[in-house]
Amino acid sequence: MFIYPGSCTINAYKLTNDGYSFAKSKKNSSDLYVFPNVNNLYEPVQILLSNVFVGYFLIPDDHIWNYNLMGIKFNNNQKYAPHLDIPQPFYADIHRPNHFLQFFFA
Fold first, then answer.
1. In this structure, are strands 12-15 and 58-59 parallel, antiparallel, or unpaired?
2. Are the CB atoms for 43 and 69 separated by under 8 Å?
3. Mind listing the pLDDT tens digit for each residue in 50-79?
4. Percentage of residues in the chain with pLDDT exceeding 70?
5. Residues 6 or more apart in contact with residue 48 via CB below 8 angstroms
6. Three-class HEC string of the chain
7. Cβ distance 47 to 14 under 8 Å?
8. pLDDT tens for residues 71-103?
9. How many CA atoms are closer than 13 Å to the CA of 11, on its beta-carbon side?
10. How confident is the model over 18-36, as pLDDT tens digits?
11. CA distance to 14, 20, 25, 38, per residue, from 34 (Å)
12. Is the N end or the C end of the chain the one with fewer CB atoms within 10 Å?
């Protein structure tokens, strides 16, 4: 597969202080999607694409970050303490305990 120059575009934006204040004021508002002058809420920034990841991961203290296979346990108001660590893979056993219970009871 080849990707030719110019066949894909990526834009990056940074939230301004005005944008942060606006979003914070709309957190629990019913008119969430009513925007004033949006030009001052964000600004374009340069983006650098690389095959090297430089950064860190913050994951929940119980190491469970993927609720895709156990959605019933997801709670939007769940309290957690993030810590610095390497996240478990997407299909790690910690993210799908019901699959292993099926093997046990089969």
1. unpaired
2. no
3. 777 788 899 999 898 888 888 788 888 888
4. 88
5. none
6. CCCCCCCCCCCEEEECHHHHHHHHHCCCCCCCCCCCCHHHCEEEECCCCCCCCCCCCEECCCCCCCCCCCHHHCCCCCCCCCEECCCCCCCCHHHCHHHHHHHHHC
7. no
8. 788 888 888 899 999 999 988 888 888 887 776
9. 4
10. 888 888 888 777 776 776 6
11. 20, 15, 12, 10
12. N
What share of the chain has pLDDT > 90, as a percent? 23
pTM: predicted TM-score of the whole model, two decimal places: 0.45
Whole-number Å distance between alpha carbons of 106 and 94: 20
The two three-digit tokens of residue 48, written as one number: 């650098």
Q: What is the rounded CA–CA span in Å between residue 81 and residue 41?
A: 29
Domain spans of the chain?
Answer: 12-105
- Copy the structure tokens of residue 92: 């790690």
Distance CA 74, CA 72 (A): 6
